[in-house]
């Protein structure tokens, strides 16, 4: 018998983890109560941030969820497609049979006819003979692999010529405290032990974790720490877990011949939103956007992940002009009337970037325009509606340009693709 290398033993431990504690912990019966929504892989986001709101809705979307886990992103995307009556297929690949069985049960509960499941490793996509995909989701997976660069290059190889991806990787500063506890637990409960034995040790540590531990101060992980065995294990016992600063993430994409069409949300990476000092803003605004994004991460301190929609270098499609009266705005998820209610008397919208809440100024007139956005009215129809309230076309154009730009950067108002 040959001795396993450290990398192999970590990989074996990782495989055992997701069979014992499929992540995230989900109950298929809950599908009757709610649809979990997030980024990436929200259909309206894909339409806008990947395809520039120019790919017809009638064109079939072939999507791969590489490392689907228990299925959050896959179920969301397949449900969105089916509800909208749009053609397409969501192919889910994961090497954990236990995780796949949960995702399959969730799909069956929703009677999804546009989704299929394949047991296999995303690092062996070539052997699965799945062809090319218009869209690839790889969320929370690459940072657990022995060679993330090779894995991302392989995904790029399976991307259709005009396709794009939705990615999520861990970020270091918002995970402050996590790696300290991970290091301690690897000494107390080595990854060579069974997942059950390691989890028992983690529970014991967390019961009496000192108040001075950095993890105690970090408010980013309530869902993990209260998310059952799977959440605790994934946070503190994962045998291979690395994080990328936004600069490292951009370099990671560049190596694979990719570039971001959108870091999610775009405004999160603008440090001037939470730095009101005029001289600071002037200094920062003159820097390249990559440096501005790095400054936002450095100073906010709470980014625990980086979510991005990416395309091949030079392939980013500019969305339609939001001032074109034929464009159709659409709310990403929250109805316009509800978003308008969230505006404060001073016409700011309190927006949460994780645990950081920033007041975002909006034109006062957006309070009346937002409820009119129904995904059917054109920008021209909005202008006509507010004209009856005494707002001239020139005034509307100024208000709409500012309001749309602000809410687009918050990923709240987008544009609809053609039918």
TrEMBL record:
Disordered as annotated region, ranges: 1-31
CDD domains for the chain: AdoMet_MTases
An annotated GO BP: methylation
Keywords, comma-separated and alphabetical: Methyltransferase, Transferase
Ranges for domain Methyltransferase: 64-165
GO MF annotation terms: methyltransferase activity
Keyword Transcription: no
Bias type Polar residues, positions: 1-15
Protein name: Methyltransferase
């Amino acid at each position: 018998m040959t001795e396993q290398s450290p990398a192999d033993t970590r990989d074996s431990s990782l495989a055992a983890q997701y069979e014992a504690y499929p992540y995230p912990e989900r109950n298929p019966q809950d599908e009757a109560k709610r649809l979990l929504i997030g980024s990436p892989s929200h259909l309206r986001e894909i339409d806008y941030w990947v395809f520039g709101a120019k790919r017809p809705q009638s064109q079939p979307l072939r999507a791969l969820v590489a490392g689907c886990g228990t299925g959050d992103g896959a179920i969301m995307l397949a449900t969105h497609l089916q509800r909208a009556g749009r053609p397409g297929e969501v192919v889910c690949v994961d090497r954990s049979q236990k995780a796949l069985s949960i995702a399959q049960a969730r799909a069956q509960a929703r009677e999804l006819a546009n989704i299929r499941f394949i047991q296999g490793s995303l690092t062996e996509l070539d052997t699965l003979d799945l062809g090319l995909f218009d869209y690839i989701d790889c969320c929370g997976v690459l940072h657990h692999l022995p060679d993330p660069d090779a894995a991302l290059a392989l995904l790029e190889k399976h991307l259709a010529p005009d396709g794009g991806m939705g990615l999520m990787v861990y970020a270091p500063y918002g995970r402050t405290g996590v790696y300290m506890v991970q290091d301690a637990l690897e000494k107390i409960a080595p990854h060579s032990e069974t997942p059950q034995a390691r989890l028992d040790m983690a529970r014991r540590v967390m019961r009496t974790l000192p108040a001075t531990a950095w993890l105690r101060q970090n408010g980013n992980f309530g869902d993990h720490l209260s998310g059952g065995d799977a959440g605790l294990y994934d946070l503190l016992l994962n045998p291979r877990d690395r994080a990328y600063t936004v600069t490292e993430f951009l370099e990671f994409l560049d190596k694979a011949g990719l570039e971001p069409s959108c870091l999610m949300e775009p405004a999160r990476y603008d440090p001037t939103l939470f730095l009101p000092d005029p001289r600071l803003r002037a200094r920062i605004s003159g820097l390249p956007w990559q440096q501005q994004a790095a400054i936002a991460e450095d100073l906010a301190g709470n980014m625990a992940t980086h979510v991005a929609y990416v395309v091949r270098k030079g392939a980013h499609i500019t969305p339609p002009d939001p001032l074109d009266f034929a464009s159709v705005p659409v709310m990403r998820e929250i109805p316009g009337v509800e978003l308008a209610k969230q505006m404060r008397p001073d016409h700011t919208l309190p927006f949460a970037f994780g645990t950081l809440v920033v007041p975002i100024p909006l034109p006062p007139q957006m309070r009346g325009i937002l409820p009119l956005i129904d995904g059917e009215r054109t920008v021209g129809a909005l202008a006509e509606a507010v004209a009856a309230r005494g707002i001239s076309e020139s005034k509307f154009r100024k208000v709409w340009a500012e309001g749309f730009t602000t809410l687009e950067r918050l990923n709240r108002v987008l544009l609809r693709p053609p039918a």
